[in-house]
Every structure is written in structure tokens, then in C-alpha cells.
Prior knowledge:
By secondary structure, the chain is of the alpha/beta class. It contains two helices and eight strands. It has one domain: D-tyrosyl-trna(Tyr) Deacylase, Chain: A (3-Layer(bba) Sandwich), CATH 3.50.80.10.
Amino acid sequence: MKAVIQRCKNARLIIDNKEYSSIGKGLFILLGITHDDQNIDIEWLSGKISRLRIFNDEKGKMNLSVKDIEGEILVVSQFTLFASTRKGNRPSYINSAPPEIAIPLYEKFIKQIEIDSELKVATGKFGAYMEIDFVNDGPVTIIMDSKNKE
């Protein structure tokens, strides 16, 4: 499981020219799911993101989590995070989990991050074409991989 976590001032997700979800200050998360992801990947990634101290404290030091600031979270499924570009110029998505595997894990991740962060989580719509408008704050962007816990 891979995640691109971006600290944002706000984020808005549009489907079919209508606002589907939006958040204020918090985390915008792109979540990629692969074939062998399991509950342990969800638990590790959700816990790590919930505790990630990337918001400024009163001294301007990144020392607070999204939970500490009572921020908001928007999670969007992103199969292209598992793109392979080894051969040719057209990415292969063979490493991305098919919907029958990815959807239940995506839904479990959302529930788990709501538990870990104690915050309401906004989402995208799995498989839909989405337009995302957000302001990256910093910019601060962190990439995490449950199979490569660096």
C-alpha cells in the first residue's frame, strides 16, 4: 500500500461538474493498493499517517499531527501509484490491485484512519473520473509505502 500525503490549506473534489467532497486545513491523501495488501498494511499506514507530525506548532516547528490540530482528511484511491515505467513510455498498471481487491481495502483504510485520527474523513468515489483542486501548504508532501517502512 502506498500513500502520497500532502499537507493542505483546503481541498475540493469534483465529479461530473459537481462538488463531491471538500475539506479545510488537513491532509490530502492519494492511496494506492496492490495485490498483496492486507489489514496489517492498512493498520500500519493509517496509524503512521494519523500520528505524522507535519503541522506547525506555536514556534513554527513541524511538531503537530492532523489529530492535534483537529484538521480534516480527504482520501482518494489512486491506482496509478503502482505504475511501472520500466519498459516503453506507456505505464503498466499490472501491480495495481483490481477493484474486487482494492475497493474493500480502500473502505477498510477509510474506517481505520477515522478510528486512528478520531476525525471524519472525506473521500473520493472509487473508479470515478475526479477533478481535484487543492492548495498544498508548505509545500509539504510525504510518500509512504507499507512494504518499505522508511
